[in-house]
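Progress narrative, work stream C.
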Amino acid sequence: MGAGKTTVGRILSRKIDAVLVDMDLEIEKQQGVAISQIFEEQGEPYFRAIETEMLRDISQNSDQVVSTGGGIVIKDENWGIMKESGVTVYLKASIETLFNRVKHKTTRPLLNVDDPYTKAKELFESRRELYEKSDIILDREGLEPDEVAEAIVKEIEA
């Protein structure tokens, strides 16, 4: 959430001549509504189920960079799919950096609460250990998106 997955993914996909797949956009296209509306009308468990289905479908393809939603890591099934189909990357940043990037966005359903910073911090803390199961962990503090993408390329080629 706010790590720059889609921005970095776009740059990375160009560098390695791959297709960028933004899972959130694909889910919105498939469902015909915004993710925030899915959360509001159907709930998080429903969203997580269609997210896993989308991941399973997407993982059948090759030569792609997949930008997932931040909550993809909470289901073990998703980790299995991701590990089988490619390299996983954790774009590490501080909670302050992440929150500053998303605090004005209204498209973050899990942050539509009275105290969004506390909620963001709770999500960050509960997911950090899961993110750290990634194949590549890249601290992106102070790096521009193109520098992050270049660092990922170097890690993959190492």
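Work stream C, second folded protein:
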Amino acid sequence: MIRCNFNDLKVFRDNLDKLTNAEYDRLAKECCNEIAARLLRMTQKNTPVATGTLKRAWNIEPAEKKGNVWVSVIYNTADYAIYVEYGHRTTNHKGWVTGRFMLTNAEKEIERIVPQLLEKRLLQKLGEVFD
């Protein structure tokens, strides 16, 4: 005859039940805000500085839930930001100024580190629940 003790499994189930949808949403919002803040810092770091206006014009909107997805928007209010980002023709229309890809390069970099950030935050949250 085989005997099994499921007390630990029941404790595990009870601890998982402590994580409500509100706590999942709070964790997702915190993660989204953290990732967006890091992306903003990387983008500002990549931004060329002549007068500093372009660098100071980067802004961020707090995370907001849209459907099942958390969204945070990073934008630049400088009129000429898009031309610095992607490039533009010269004023005499005979040449091309290459873009600096400040946000594009920062997005590529953040995509590389997001899984580690999320894993760290999730393990931290699970540690809080199970302690």
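The mean pLDDT is 91. No further action is required on this item.
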